[in-house]
Write the structure tokens for this entry.
Amino acid sequence: MRLRAVIIALLFVAGFAVVTSRGHWNLSRILHPIASAAKPWAEPSAARTAGLSPDELNNIDIYKSCRLATVNITSTVYRRGFFFEVVPSKDIGSGFIISEDGRILTNSHVLQGNSKIQVTLEKGDIYEAGILARDPQNDLGLIKINPKRKLPVLHLGDSEGIQVGQKVLAIGNPFGLEGSLTTGIVSSLGRTIRDENNRSLEGMIQTDAAINPGNSGGPLLDSTGNVIGINTAIYGPGGNIGIGFAMPINRAKTMLTDYNAGKIYRRPQLGISVVYVSGDLAEALELPSQGGLLVQDVGRGTSAESAGIRGPRQVVIIGNNEVGVGGDLVTEIDGKPVSRVDSLTQALAKKRAGDNIELTIFRAGRSFKLNVRLGEAPDAV
């Protein structure tokens, strides 16, 4: 039996070999059917691009239309060195053109006092610039060059309607790298920061669009390409960490209006500090649920003190914060309900020293209107 099985096996192998030689069968097809079914290897074809998204196209369009009106500003200040020699010190910043004849908006701190100012246009043309107007309290500056041709301009938008979360774009010259674009969103509104001279800059726009040294004075744009802010400062020393600040463009509009009318802009001051409360917090403090600006301090000798605005009577702890309570609640400004933390800052941005502002005050369970003549902020030069 064993011999018979061996003979059958040998005949099977021999027959298989004959069939293979005559029928051109492939042994690999028998032993590896899956591998043989696969197509021979070939280099993969390049994937087709999905195209640019609508948001990317928006970024590109804005950059193409706005970069030509964004300029590089170099200010040179001559200082005394250790051995009393005169040493030039240069600083760089940005700006943007607002008139075809060469008027440019930027930050006041970019201009470095009585410095020599040089403007480089996007195409490389270089011009000397003169200062037309400055508002150090809002860190704003207006300069002028005399170009040989009409220049492209940026359009000023409206910073009053800005919303947290909306897209913004920044163009400038970070670290001297001209024509750089960054994008982000409005992270917060109504921020107060201190500049290098310890001045308080109020009502600032906070953004996570990358802003670095050299971006100062450049435009912060909305998704239609209108300027809604002027990039002013970053949080902390060094480069960008995702927290930058821009001055709302409506502040610059006031300065420009006065300049065009031949007036010197006088920054107004009411003289109060406030905190915004609403909803459950307002009700817990026995205030109207629609809320408003709760007065935390009234400055001595200010318009607010003269008008009789009252500050807090005591301090309570809410969460991790101290809040002064018992003072006046501002619910309306010039007839408009207070709905944002920067409502007062926005209203003052449209005013000048000597103008009146109408406040609706909630005090001791009743509301009344109060007209206040605004004073002039100190050091407003």
